[in-house]
Amino acid sequence: MVLTLIEHGDGEIAETSLEMLTLARDLADQVDEDVSAAMFGGEELAAGLGEYGVDTAYVCGGDLSESYAPEARADALGILMDDLDSAAVIGGGTDTANEVLAHLSAKRDLAMAANTLEVDTDGETCEITRQRWGGSLLEHATMEGETKVFSAPDHELPIEPVGDGEAAVETITPDVDEASFEVAIDRVEEADIEGVPLPEARIVIGGGRGVGGEEDFEQLEELADQFDGATVGATRIAVDEGWVSHDAQIGQTGQKIAPDLYIAAGLSGAVQHWVGAKGSENVLAINTDPEAAIMYKGDYAIVGDLHEVVPELTDAIEAATD
Amino acid sequence: METLACIKRVADTGAEIVLTEDKQSVDASAVGYTMGPHEECAIEEAVQVVEEEGGTSTVLSLGPEDVEDQIYEGIGRGADEGIIMETDGEEWGPESTATAIADGVEERDFDLLFFGNESGDNANYQVGIRVAHQLDLPVVTGIKDFDVDGDTAIAKRDVPGGSEVFEVDTPAVITVKEGLNTPRYPSMRSRMQAKKQELEVLDPKDTEDRLQMQELETPEAEDSEAEVLGEGPEAVDNAVEVLEEMEVL
């Protein structure tokens, strides 16, 4: 059996879980096994997983789903893993999936490979390809051990519906040790967020070192105001300089964006930034340096000083949309 | 309080990652090494907790001899002590790294052990959690806001629309993310002084990793030259046309 950890929110299965199922099905085919799913809550979504090749979905309710206690969820997965005699346990590319799987791996002494794109197996050793440096580098590795633990990266694998059948749904209450609930979310604090969150923005205006200061970022804000659903983002350097808050950081240690359009102004396109922005549909770079890396990564470029180009662009868009 | 920040050195890459000829590592000869952004915050937090609560802050890294540069950097940033777990330069995987760190600090009474949520290069997402289990300590991950209240650590992490709050008893393992704090930069003077300090050298327990890197590969670049719409403000008319075609206006 290939056991998958399926996450959900806002009444939908998480996309990264559906992406991961593409990897899980491929692995299950190689060892001639079925794919099963473990879920915490979300029973109403479970049957629909059949569309993505899941044979049986096991839904844990009660404390396991109501609170988030990573170690307890890992224990529940471990119990299922044993019951189903699983060859592999796989989760999607979220911090929570990686956290739960790392607990499982640590407690049960299993090897774990995060950000795995491909697995080839003869039934014992696995040859895998995984991402390093946020996808700027690939690692080819071998993996030993009876049960192997993987997570897939976010936004890399295709979502592939394979059938129209429904998954069998079983509600279970695994007997998890009370001590494993000790670390759990105590409370949730709501934050006041202005504007569209970066990962959801349709248009992102990003600024880097070339923007030059906190006040200069207002030029980018004014450009963003010309679009619906636009938000301003920044590189790590601009955040470190204190020009914008860390919430605006795009990149490996910031947020990942996937807008229809990314306007990259005054930023060179360093690896750590680009891994957060490469999901953009279209990129328009504005840079004084025609040889900057972003000029080779983007689709369109304006060679020039953003302080001159951006206000002009803002006015031109305003005129065009009036 | 006794605090520990575990850091990993990573190549200080710029616009492109270059591999060594044998494809076993990133060629850092031209760019040098640094530490990951998460770990800069781990050090800063370890230092701040001691500034507020008293005690000693320690920076630890597992790596070849010259990883001392990153440990000195941590001392320059305010940590009191440094531990180097010296390796021969071969890459250590997440299992062996965690086992060596847990083995090395087991007998020491650290109240808070800070790690990066994931390393900047290999991002295995598991070293801190494995160390916590080996030491039988609670662990919270992805932390972007941290406070100590007596024997309780109050740790928050970002979720869309707010933050999730965890409260755990110390001693505890805390894995952190960039944005937790604003790391201070060491002054020239503190850098110079840091290098005078003697580091504790530990021989790391060497165990086998079941995940074994065979070879690294730079993925084929999807790079293509961008279509230049023009130079300076004169280019904006072309830009508006392109944006209209994209239907984003």
Reconstruct the topology from this structure.
The complex is a heterodimer of chains A (322) and B (249).
Chain A: E1 2-6, E2 8-9, E3 12-13, H1 15-31, E4 35-40, H2 43-46, E5 54-60, H3 63-66, H4 70-83, E6 88-91, H5 95-108, E7 112-113, E8 116-121, E9 126-132, E10 137-143, E11 148-151, E12 168-172, E13 185-190, E14 203-207, H6 217-224, E15 230-234, H7 236-240, E16 261-265, H8 271-277, E17 282-287, H9 294-297, E18 300-303, H10 306-321
Parallel strand pairs in A: 1-4, 1-6, 4-5, 5-12, 6-11, 7-11, 14-15, 14-16, 16-17, 17-18
Antiparallel strand pairs in A: 2-3, 8-9, 9-10
Helix pairs in contact in A: 4-5, 6-10
Chain B: E1 2-7, E2 9-11, E3 33-35, H1 37-53, E4 56-63, H2 68-76, E5 81-86, H3 94-105, E6 112-116, H4 127-135, E7 139-143, E8 145-149, E9 152-159, E10 162-169, E11 172-176, H5 188-194, E12 200-202, E13 211-217, E14 227-231, H6 236-246
Parallel strand pairs in B: 1-4, 1-6, 4-5, 5-12, 6-11, 7-11
Antiparallel strand pairs in B: 2-3, 8-9, 9-10
Helix pairs in contact in B: 2-5, 3-4
Describe the overall structure:
The complex is a heterodimer of chains A (322) and B (249). Chain A is α/β, with parallel strands linked by helices. Chain A has 2 domains: 2-181, HUPs (Rossmann fold); 198-321, Rossmann fold (3-Layer(aba) Sandwich). Chain A has helices spanning 15-31, 43-46, 63-66, 70-83, 95-108, 217-224, 236-240, 271-277, 294-297, 306-321, and strands at 2-6, 8-9, 12-13, 35-40, 54-60, 88-91, 112-113, 116-121, 126-132, 137-143, 148-151, 168-172, 185-190, 203-207, 230-234, 261-265, 282-287, 300-303. A 7-stranded parallel β-sheet of chain A has the order 7-11-6-1-4-5-12, with helices on both faces. A 5-stranded parallel β-sheet of chain A has the order 15-14-16-17-18. A 3-stranded antiparallel β-sheet of chain A has the order 8-9-10. The relative contact order of chain A is 0.12. The mean pLDDT of chain A is 95. Chain B is α/β, with parallel strands linked by helices and 249 residues long. Helices cover 26% and strands 31% of the residues of chain B. Chain B contains 6 helices and 14 strands. In chain B, the strands form 3 sheets. Chain B has a 7-stranded parallel β-sheet, with helices on both faces. In chain B, helix 3 (94-105) packs across helix 4. The radius of gyration of chain B is 21 Å and the shape is globular. Chain B starts with a strand and ends with a helix. The mean pLDDT of chain B is 95. The interface between A and B is large, with 88 and 81 residues.
